Amino acid sequence: MAPIDADISWHNEVSNSNAAAYDPAQRSPSRLADLYTTVTEASLTNPWAVLDSIRPEMSDSDRAYLDRRPGLAAVIAESHADVGEHGYWGRVDDAIAAITPWGFDPQEIESPVFLLQGSDDPWTPQQHFEWHMSHIPDPRTIGPMPGVGHIGTTEFMLPLYTGLKQNALEILSGS
Question: Is the pTM of this model over 0.90?
Answer without folding.
Answer: no
